[in-house]
Amino acid sequence: CGVIYDPYYCNGRVVDLLCQLGFREIRHERRDFYADVAQEKVPLHDVLITNPPYSTNHKEQCLEFCVKHLRQTGTPFFLLLPNYVALKEYYRHATQTKDGKEANDIVYVVPPDPYEYDHPEGTGHDIPPFSSIWFCGIGKTQMETLRMQKSLYLEKLNDESVSRGRGQVSIAFSIQELQQLNAVPTLKRLNPRQRKKRKQQKEEHSNYATRSTLNTESKLKACTNTSKNINQGQIMLGVTKIPTPKKNSSHRDANGVRKKKRF
């Protein structure tokens, strides 16, 4: 596939991983990607593959460069991003065509199982609170070729859609197809401030439930101890338990002795 370029340098492990897959020509250096873009000094490459940082506006900047580079030079890109990105306004703005329509040169690849992340610096979540999908900018011509190949594949399976339940990836050519695959969230994702507030509310609710449980246990324990103390006090004072009187019966006398046999 030529030279692979990953602009986001972390600890250089990407080179080792790609080499294990059989790729040899890789550009992955400790450089300022955005400075290279501004100065038009981006290293020459045949395909861009990366998992950009999800914090701040890295996703937006990466998308803007990749889409522009694809449409100007035909250089494909493969970005591993959170699934919610597909529904963001900045994504629609960065990928729409000149006449304002949905991108017709980007395909989406949905893994059969959620990805888990390895953070070298010990930050972030190993299991993220979202699913990740591949945003693949491959150009209009390759899109049509892939559509034909998918149709032939589905005809061979005699199925209407690629199944996600058999260890196979799913391919979508539009946001609508992603929604049909349930590969994107149906609810709007909260902003950072809202997520922080919800997290605090959950913690407060959890702490309240814990305190309530402890208070209940303490009260039950106190009642048990009080009952024990009363019983012990009665024993020390020689108080015996008063028998519960039996109910009045027409078949028994005042002393409770049966007047006559029942049968």
From TrEMBL:
Residues 190-200 have a biased composition (Basic residues). Residues 186-219, 234-263 are annotated as: Disordered. Residues 207-219 have a biased composition (Polar residues). One of its GO terms (molecular function) is methyltransferase activity. InterPro entries: DNA_methylase_N6_adenine_CS. GO terms for biological process: methylation. PANTHER family: SITE-SPECIFIC DNA-METHYLTRANSFERASE (ADENINE-SPECIFIC). This is Uncharacterized protein.
